Amino acid sequence: MRILLTGALGQLGSDLLPLLQRQGETVAVDRTECDLSSPAAIRRLVAESAPDVIVNPAAYTAVNEAEAQPALAHAINATAAGVLAEEACKRGAMFVHYSTDYVFDGRKTGEYVEADQPNPLNVYGASKLAGEQAVAAAGGRYLILRTSWVYGANGNNFLLTMRRLAREREELKIVDDQVGGPTSSIQLAQATDRLVREQAGKAPSEFPAGLYHTTAAGRVSWCGFARAIVESFRGSRVLPDSGLMKVRNIAGISSREYPTPAARPHNSVLSNRKFESAFGFCLHDWQDALAEVMREIERRES
Asked: Is the pTM of this model over 0.90?
């Protein structure tokens, strides 16, 4: 089996790469090796790599910056996704793509299901929704994994930002009226690896093509997540900075008190029932996933 992995140096891509390499020959590219804003470059890449599976974690993820760069966000998150899906369909290849809770406006009181009507509040969410639509329109053996609040042991993410700020400040003010399911890139990579292993060989008539919510179980606010992160670092026995946490108070604030260029949904909780029903497993609770990420950080740094 030949696998094409985009965004190989990104947060999710770097966790995917070692797993996918165990399944087959993996062609891993980053932005320097393929310009995803160029459909011609994408088609050339697919032709040269001749993959049986394409996994596409590459994305424009700078949510605030996307407000000022809508064309670039759309080119990478929508157009590129559609071109990759078209090329996968032509080859009969399995295609895995990732989307976001930000396709919703957050006004629903309960968990969002796949059939709920999207209504993105920002350019990033709109570009990712357009990507979903482009992938679905291409057809073939595709899986769209809609996830939320992705973080991990590397890259630029909320967990590592909280670690840095907790060593610099005595008080942190974190938004407490936005709730979701923080999903670790490790868990998401493991789930993808299992999907590729179990689904790649299925014929089109048997392949469960479609959109699936794929997030950690449970829910928490950004403020609650920040508190759990800081306590995890404080409780580490092996990290050199575990005793250097300067922060004494993590205060919850409203979204109005922390305005950003891009509006965020207040409710980002996604139901994973469809995913579990289709594939027979689900991601762990966000607290268990956080503990796993902490173990990985400790492994790397101790």
From this structure: yes
